[in-house]
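hiii, so i know i said id send this last week but things got crazy w the move. better late than never?? heres the sequnce for the chain we talked about at the cafe, plus the structure i predicted for it. fair warning i was half asleep when i ran it
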Amino acid sequence: MILKPTRLLLAMTALVAAPVFAQNAATVNGKPIPAAKVDQAVKQIVAQGRATDSPQLREMVKKELIGREVLIQEADKQGVGGRADVKAAVDNARQSIIINAMLADYVKKNPVKDAEIKAEYDKAKAQAPEKEYHARHILVEKEEDAKAIITKLKGGAKFEELAKQGKDGTAQNGGDLGWADPRGFVPEFSKAMTSLQKGAITDTPVKTQFGFHVIKLEDVRPVQVPPLDQVKQQVAESLQQKKLAEFRESLLKKAKVQ
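okay and structure toks below
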């Protein structure tokens, strides 16, 4: 079959346009949305474990991109992008994206090694206390109030009930401080707590920078350090953050800040 010149021209135009059309997922008011943009968004969603690649997901992503394109075109018509506050927000977002990408590259190039994880774990294990303590306390502002509470406790009052008089966040929980490393408390509190016998209450108020405490020791137990394989990921993440902080500090030291 011999095509007439007009039909031949139309056929050639279609052949040229087909690949271009295939590269676009859609067009909005003449503005193309590249299919590659859909692919990128789908890959990101799949990589985050939020969904699996499917026609339904791709259609959803395409509709979202179309909706965003409609909105951005309207925003451009209104000149929103030219506002000073919007420009500042865009610049901040741009900086965050670029910085995060650079830091991600740094992590890839400077991975935490197993030997570093083992050394950090051994160090933490060696520094761990032998015992941890489960205590309750009642914190008040005045010493006479603390003394009055001690008197009531000696008379048989329940610690958990009197703890509601406390002025800190543990008051409604019976003054419960949970299991803790004694080094996590201020020295005065720690010394008084660790000197108590199980079930005992301080005979006199314990003064700290926060006020006056009445302390009850519920229990004591040996510290159980979890095996390395259970905390390896947490140790690795901690070391990674430490490396990133050191990298940032090294850049700050090199920078000429006036």
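btw The two ends are 79 Å apart (CA to CA). thought thatd interest u
miss u guys!!
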